[in-house]
Amino acid sequence: MVLLGKEEKNGWMTVGYQSTWPLSYEVMLCAAQEIIDKDFKERLDRVAVGFANDCTECIDEVRKHNRILTDCPTVSKENGFLIVSGYSEIMESNLQIKFYNQTMSVILQTTNIKVFSESGDNAFSNYMNSIEINTYIKLANENGHIEIPIIKKPKSIWKKLFSWS
Q1: Predicted confidence band at 148 (pLDDT cuts at 50, 70, 90)?
Q2: What is the model's pLDDT at position 141?
Q3: 52: left (phi over 0), alpha (psi -120 to 50) or beta
Q4: What's the pLDDT at 85?
Q5: Which of 46, 106, 153, 165 could form a disulfide with 159 if both were Cys (CB 3.0 to 4.6 A apart)?
Q6: How far apart are CA 84 and CA 36, in angstroms?
Q7: What number of CA atoms fall less than 13 Å from residue 56's CA on the CB side?
Q8: So what's the pLDDT on residue 137?
Q9: What is the 8-class DSSP label of residue 47?
């Protein structure tokens, strides 16, 4: 993933990333599941889905289905965005990650603002890249293969979303 910019507001740092490939809903679900399984685990606090400004909170349904997103009817149905939030054991901070369907846009929000002054703007880039790589490895293992296109420069929607683009 490529870091596009960051912005601090109300005690949260919002960081914009562009994924290497466009995100299908299947990829978003897999990426969110990787975050839950390998990082948040029992400290998952929020799962939400929706379109535009319509957001449905799903944490009770996700807990009922043992944190398996594909087992949750509301979450597994294709949506415009998918949000997962919790405490990151890896990054040692509260995180919220929002994936946008059929785009290359991913937003990370964290309360760990100090890490950016200590480690620089790319403080979360290895974390985000690891999620993307693990997602495609998992999908390839589950499907027996995966087609990953070679792309040129993709069109970005960031100018519509943020002032730093």
Answers
A1: low
A2: 84
A3: left
A4: 98
A5: 165
A6: 8
A7: 17
A8: 87
A9: E
